Amino acid sequence: MTRHHSRALAAVVGIAALALAGCASTDSAAVPAGDDQEIAYPEIHALLPDEIAERGYITNMTQIPNAPLEFEDADGTLSGIDPELMDAVSEVLGVEIRTETTADFAALLPSLDSGRTDIVFSAVLSTDERRAAGYSFVDYFQSYTTFMVRADDAEEIASFGDLCGRTVTANKGTQYPELAEKVSEDHCVAEGLDPIDVLPLDQIPQQVTQLQQGRSDALIMGVEYEAYEMSKAEGEFALLDEQLDPTKYGIVALAENEQLLQAIAAALTELESQGVYQDILEGWNLGGSAVESFELRAAE
């Protein structure tokens, strides 16, 4: 994938730094509060909670592999859309984002509850149900959900109704099992047909393997994941034309940490105004997934 955002972001931060400090420059991706070096965006940095500004970093939990949103390169480097956005947000906020990874998506939100992490920046669906449970969001990515099947089965499985009585895998701990069950209720059970057999699995690679080996008939996930898997196995898979309603991924924090989310929203807004946000998404051929604005969706 091409990644143009580094040069663009360097230019943005460099211009701001020069305006503030003459010819001063820094190679650091994050400048903790209290450091002798200038903060590139002091007004945005000032939005951070005092505790985080003083410690100089934000803690984050991310689930991998979850390509193209987040995954490890061959050398173990965290890569993908979310890490690139995190790097850019870190530059604007003037603090580091320290990321811990897990293979278990279901462990993400509990990491907030336990105080282990400040935020979860890991393609979490921004839902009213999660807000009702005490989580606040800043949405940053729009996704569309549908089913992926083997290309050889594309004519036989061409619509939601064609999935009735078949096995569909979904990523455990996400909203996808629930979405598949809803498709089953609306398009199968309501029509007197056999329900879809929804099989939750721990990781996306497991879903793909099951489909390749014929142990499932389809998988459900966001089209960005499906497009990425299709790019690695050209001609092997196909997508249904029918899609569920658009969904959004959000950066998550507890209600008590909404000030931090407000600061992150301001950083994303700055990146959008400079074209860096769009540049990152387009670098992964997902420019159409940009959101129109970055607003806090507070816990209810």
Automatic annotation (TrEMBL):
Q: Which Pfam families match?
A: SBP_bac_3
The residues forming the signal peptide are 1-29
Keyword Lipid biosynthesis tagged: no
Q: Which UniProt keywords apply?
A: Signal
Coiled-coil ranges (or none):
none
Please, which domain of life does this record's source organism belong to? Bacteria
Residue ranges of the Solute-binding protein family 3/N-terminal domain?
57-288
Question: Does the entry feature the keyword Magnesium, yes or no?
Answer: no
Return the PANTHER family for the record. ARGININE-BINDING EXTRACELLULAR PROTEIN ARTP, MEMBRANE-BOUND LYTIC MUREIN TRANSGLYCOSYLASE F
Q: What is this protein called?
A: Polar amino acid transport system substrate-binding protein
